[in-house]
Design a protein that fits this description.
about 180 residues, nine-stranded antiparallel beta sheet, four-stranded antiparallel beta sheet
């Protein structure tokens, strides 16, 4: 992905205009669904994701050189999902329900982001080890033409969970034609 940014501050005003940047990411994921009967399954899974961002160095309005020294991440994830799927015909078409719960451990292998401003380094890094739990599901009807879906999750640092945590929720309606 290519970026073009205008950076400014309430206190300092415009810092740079039209600064160009570039970012990319790729990942590999594996998992194996293991049926345990009556629509239930367990899925152990693992993922490794690498991402990198960069931007052109510039001098701010005060002449201070600003450059990115380190902008990459290598994030590993290991998880286990418990899933229940059911399919039936309600007389008007096929209906499907898919409900799941998941637990994950995530680990950041690299050291975060570092930006140099006039020879002074500023670093930004999250805690390395995080845990998460979540759940969600999809309910579709009319042979899959309509579906509602949702997911909720709680993520927390395992080093300092009282200060580093977040909640996430998504949901929606899908119509296929």
């Amino acid at each position: 992905m290519f970026y073009r940014s205008d950076l400014s501050s309430v206190l300092a005003g415009s810092l740079t205009h039209g600064n160009e940047g570039f970012g990319y990411a790729f990942s590999a994921e594996t998992g194996k669904r293991i049926g345990v009967g009556n629509g239930w399954s367990l899925t152990p899974q693992a993922q490794l994701a690498y991402s990198r961002v960069a931007f052109d160095s510039f001098a701010d309005r005060f002449g201070a050189p600003v450059s990115l020294r380190d902008g990459d991440s290598l994030l590993g994830r290991a998880g286990l999902a418990l899933n229940h799927q059911r399919t039936w015909n309600d007389g008007t078409g096929i209906v499907r329900s898919d409900v799941y719960g998941i637990a994950n451990l995530r680990y950041e292998f690299l050291n975060g982001t570092t930006v140099d401003v006039a020879g002074t380094s500023f670093a930004n890094a999250q805690d390395r080890l995080w845990g998460s739990i979540g759940g969600g599901g999809t309910y579709s009807w009319a042979n899959g033409r309509y579906a509602i879906f949702g997911e909720l999750s709680y993520n927390a640092s395992l080093n300092n969970g009282s200060d580093n945590r977040n909640y996430k929720g998504t949901g929606g309606f899908r119509l296929t034609w």
